[in-house]
TrEMBL record:
Family named by the database record: Belongs to the bacterial diacylglycerol kinase family.
Cofactor: Mg(2+)
Gene3D superfamilies with a match to the protein in the record: 1.10.287.3610
InterPro entries: DAGK, DAGK_sf, UDPK
Note on how the cofactor is bound: Mn(2+), Zn(2+), Cd(2+) and Co(2+) support activity to lesser extents.
Active site positions, chain numbering: E66
Principal location listed in the UniProt entry: membrane
Binding residue positions for a divalent metal cation: E25, E73
Protein name: Diacylglycerol kinase family protein
Residues given in the record as substrate binding sites: E66, S95
Lipid bilayer topology: Multi-pass membrane protein
Residues annotated to bind ATP: E25, E73, K91, D92
GO CC annotation, single: plasma membrane
Length: 123
């Protein structure tokens, strides 16, 4: 039997994690600002449903990667508060994963939004 009270509490914990991500993590705030700009551009350029699905997937992936990166960094700092070469490597890899997704999201955004902007400016 599903304990719906536990499920509801889990959603509360997850919501708090999302709030904390955007409240305390500078890079998450940058990703949020860019996402808002992309969403406004998407409405203005009248993206199709498929284009919306692709853009929203990219936004979600970048935010999720940022959340995982933040969690990994916090665990590393807890386990090893001082400087350690392995901890540095772990943090660098985690940050690199976010960068890979962010660059991919930019490229996808340029493909979708850029082509629409070119069509507008070329008449």
């Amino acid at each position: 039997m599903i304990n719906f009270r536990k499920v509801w509490r889990s959603f509360g914990f997850a919501r708090q994690g999302i709030v904390d991500l955007f409240r305390y993590e500078n890079n998450a705030k940058v990703h949020l600002l860019i996402a808002v700009l992309v969403l406004v551009a998407g409405f203005w350029l009248e993206m199709s449903r498929v284009e919306w699905a692709i853009i929203l997937t990219q936004v979600g992936l970048v935010w999720a990667a940022e959340a995982f990166n933040t969690a990994i960094e916090k665990i590393c700092d807890f386990v090893s508060p001082g400087l350690h070469p392995q901890i540095k490597a772990i943090k660098d890899l985690s940050s690199g994963a976010v960068l890979i997704l962010a660059v991919t999201a930019v490229l996808v955004g340029l493909l979708i939004l850029g082509s629409k902007l070119l069509a507008i400016f070329n008449g």
